[in-house]
C-alpha cells in the first residue's frame, strides 16, 4: 500500500495533546533510511521512498517511526558522523522532504522520532575543521578533547582507552608546518571526534538542535550513546575494577545534568515530546537513574535482546528490567534487534543464541528454520510484555542476517577489527518489497518512480548492499498473500495488542508453569504462554486463542512457540 506524495505548507504540524502517555505503550518502528525504500533508482533509500510506504506502516499498526541519522554526513559510520544537525543528507532528500514526511505520517496517526548524536560530530563538521585550523589552547579546540601527547616528544597517546569500535581512541594532528601536533579524542572512529560537554557552546548548540526539530513536529529524540558524553578531565586510565560512576568516559554522574536540561525543553512543547536513551549501563540502579521523572522518558532495554533463547535467561531478564524500572515509574522497552545487532531469525538458530559484539565472526552456522520458529515465538513474547515495543525494519518480514562478501562491506567495526568481525552491514541490507529478483521493488522499476508514474527514472542501479537471490519468498508482496507468513503474524499481533487493553503498559503476573515455559497474565483476561522446551505442552484454561506463532498439535503448544489466550475474568 502506498501513500500519495503531496505538498503542504511550511507550518509545523500540531501533535495530539489528548494522549500524553502515548509513549508508554507505543509500537515504534525503526527506519534505517538507506535500506528502507529508494524512490529515484540510485540504489539508496530516501525520504520520498519512506513517504511512499507510509500506508504499509499504517497497515502494520505502528504508532511511531524512529529514524536513524538522516543528516548530512560523510557516512564514515553510517550517518553517526554528523556534519550538520539542521539539514538532510542530499542522498536522502531535503529538509522539506523531512517536514512533509513528519506531517504526512502524523496525519495517519504515526509520530516521528529522530536520532540525536551528542557524543561526537563528523571530522568534517565546521566546528572541528575550525579547531584543526586553530592553535593549541584556542577557543575552537576547547569544544573538543585536544591534548598533548605523553613522552619526551609527545609521541604517546594521552591515555590507553579502548575504542567502542576496537583500537585506539586518540589520533594525532599535524601542525601547519608539518610537525606532529596535539592528539584528539574519539571513542569511536577518528572521523568522529568527541565533543567536550563541559563547554557551554556544546550544551547550547544541542539544546538549539532539539528546538529546531521539535519546532518541525518531531515527537521525540533517540539519544545515541547517551551515557558517554561526560569525561573525567584528568584523563585517568580505566581501573581494573570500575566502581559505579567511576569510569573515566562512561556513565558519569554529571551526565544527568544534560538530560535534565533537555527534559525541560521537551516539556515546554505541547504534545508529549519524548527522550529515549541508548544507555548501555549494566548496573540496574544506575540505568534507572536516567529515567527519573525529570530526565528521559524511556531507555533501550538491551539486556533482553542479548539473552539466549532459554526460559530461565529470558525470565531473569524480564524480572531484572521490570524491577529496575519500578522505582522510577518508567515503562520498560522491549526489542529483539536493531541496526547494530544480528537479526533474530539468524541469531536464534545458532547453538549460542545470545548476542555480544565481541563474538561476531564470519561463517557462524545457523539453522534458519529453527531460528524462524523461535523468532515468531519471540515476536509474540515481546509484544505481550508491559511497556513499549520497538521493531527494526525487516524483522516483521523474518529477514535473516546476510553474510556479505568482504569487498562490499562498509562498516568500520569490520575494518577496525582487522577483518575478524563481519560488522553490522548484514542486518542493513535493503528491504524486499515485491518481485522475483533484486532489487525486489526496493528501487522503482525501470521507467517508474515510487508512485508508479512512468518516465520519472531510468533503470535502477543495484542496491547499495546486495540482496540475496532467494529473498523473493520474503517480499512484502509474497507475505501479504500468505496467512502463515511472518508479516501476517506481526500485523495480527499489533492489532490485538492495540485492541486488548490489558496489553501494552500495565501490570504483569507470572503464572505457574513447567520448566522451559514462560507463562504470564496481562490484566485479568489475557495470558501469554511461550514454550521454550523440547516437548509440546498443554495450555492453561482459556475460552479462546487470540493468536499463536505456530499451529497447535493435538491441542498442545509445540516447542519454540507462543500463544496468546483470552480467558473470562
Automatic annotation (TrEMBL):
SUPFAM superfamilies assigned to the protein according to its UniProt record, in alphabetical order? (Trans)glycosidases (SSF51445)
Q: What is this protein called?
A: Glycoside hydrolase family 13 protein
Question: Keyword Plastid on this protein?
Answer: no
Q: Which family does it belong to?
A: Belongs to the glycosyl hydrolase 13 family.
- The reply to whether Kinase figures as a keyword in the UniProt entry is no
Occurrences of domain Glycosyl hydrolase family 13 catalytic (ranges): 30-428
Pfam families for the chain: Alpha-amylase (PF00128)
What are the entry keywords? Hydrolase
GO MF annotations in UniProt:
hydrolase activity
Coiled coil regions, renumbered to chain = none
Going by the entry's taxonomy, the superkingdom of the source organism is recorded as Bacteria
Amino acid at each position: 500500500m502506498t501513500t500519495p506524495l503531496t505538498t503542504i505548507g511550511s507550518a509545523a504540524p500540531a501533535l495530539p495533546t489528548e494522549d500524553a502517555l502515548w509513549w508508554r505503550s507505543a509500537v515504534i518502528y525503526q527506519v534505517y533510511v538507506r535500506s528502507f525504500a529508494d524512490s529515484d533508482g540510485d540504489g539508496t533509500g530516501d525520504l520520498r521512498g519512506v513517504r511512499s510506504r507510509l500506508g504499509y506502516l499504517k497497515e502494520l499498526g505502528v504508532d511511531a517511526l524512529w529514524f536513524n541519522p538522516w543528516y548530512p554526513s560523510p557516512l564514515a559510520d553510517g550517518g553517526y558522523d554528523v556534519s550538520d544537525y539542521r539539514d538532510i543528507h542530499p542522498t536522502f532528500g531535503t529538509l522539506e522532504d523531512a517536514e512533509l514526511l513528519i506531517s504526512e505520517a502524523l496525519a495517519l496517526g504515526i509520530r516521528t522520532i529522530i536520532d540525536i548524536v551528542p557524543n561526537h560530530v563528523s571530522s568534517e563538521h565546521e566546528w572541528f575543521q575550525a579547531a584543526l585550523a586553530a592553535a593549541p589552547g584556542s577557543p575552537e579546540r576547547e569544544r573538543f578533547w585536544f591534548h598533548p601527547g605523553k613522552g619526551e616528544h609527545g609521541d604517546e597517546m594521552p591515555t590507553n582507552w579502548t575504542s567502542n569500535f576496537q583500537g585506539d581512541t586518540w589520533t594525532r594532528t599535524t601542525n601547519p608546518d608539518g610537525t606532529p601536533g596535539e592528539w584528539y579524542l574519539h571513542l569511536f572512529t577518528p572521523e568522529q571526534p568527541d565533543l567536550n560537554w563541559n563547554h557551554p557552546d556544546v550544551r547550547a548548540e544541542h539544546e538549539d538542535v532539539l528546538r529546531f526539530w521539535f519546532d518541525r513536529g518531531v515527537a521525540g529524540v533517540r539519544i545515541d550513546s547517551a551515557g558517554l558524553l561526560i569525561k573525567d578531565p584528568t584523563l585517568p586510565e580505566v581501573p581494573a575494577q570500575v566502581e559505579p560512576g567511576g569510569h573515566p568516559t562512561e556513565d558519569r554522574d554529571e551526565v544527568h545534568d544534560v538530560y535534565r536540561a533537555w527534559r525541560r525543553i521537551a516539556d515546554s512543547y505541547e504534545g508529549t515530546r519524548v527522550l529515549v536513551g541508548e544507555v548501555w549501563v549494566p548496573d540496574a540502579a544506575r540505568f534507572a537513574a536516567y529515567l527519573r521523572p525529570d530526565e528521559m522518558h524511556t531507555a533501550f532495554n538491551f539486556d533482553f535482546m542479548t539473552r539466549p533463547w532459554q526460559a530461565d535467561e529470558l525470565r531473569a531478564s524480564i524480572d531484572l528490567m521490570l524491577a529496575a524500572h519500578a522505582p522510577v515509574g518508567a515503562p520498560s522497552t522491549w526489542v529483539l534487534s536493531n541496526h547494530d545487532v544480528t537479526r533474530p531469525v539468524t541469531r536464534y538458530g545458532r547453538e549460542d543464541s545470545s548476542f555480544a559484539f565481541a563474538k561476531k565472526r564470519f561463517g557462524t552456522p545457523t539453522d534458519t528454520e529453527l531460528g524462524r520458529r523461535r523468532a515468531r515465538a519471540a515476536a509474540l513474547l515481546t509484544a505481550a510484555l508491559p511497556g513499549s515495543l520497538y521493531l527494526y525494519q525487516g524483522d516483521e518480514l523474518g529477514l535473516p542476517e546476510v553474510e556479505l562478501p568482504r569487498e562490499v562491506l562498509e562498516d568500520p567495526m569490520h575494518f577496525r577489527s582487522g577483518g575478524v568481525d563481519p560488522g553490522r552491514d548484514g542486518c542493513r541490507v535493503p528491504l524486499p518489497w515485491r518481485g522475483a529478483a533484486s532489487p525486489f521493488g526496493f528501487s522503482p522499476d525501470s521507467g517508474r518512480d515510487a508512485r508508479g508514474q512512468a518516465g520519472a527514472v531510468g533503470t535502477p542501479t543495484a542496491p547499495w548492499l546486495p540482496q540475496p537471490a532467494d529473498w523473493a519468498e520474503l517480499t512484502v508482496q509474497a507475505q501479504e498473500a500468505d496467512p502463515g507468513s511472518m508479516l501476517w503474524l506481526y500485523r495480527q499481533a499489533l492489532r490485538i495488542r492495540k485492541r486488548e487493553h490489558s496489553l501494552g503498559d500495565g501490570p504483569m503476573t507470572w503464572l505457574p508453569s513447567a520448566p522451559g515455559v514462560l507463562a504470564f497474565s496481562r490484566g485479568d483476561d489475557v495470558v501469554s504462554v511461550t514454550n521454550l522446551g523440547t516437548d509440546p505442552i498443554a495450555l492453561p484454561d482459556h475460552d479462546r486463542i487470540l493468536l499463536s506463532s505456530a499451529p497447535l498439535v493435538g491441542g498442545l503448544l509445540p516447542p519454540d512457540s507462543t500463544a496468546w489466550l483470552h480467558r473470562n475474568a
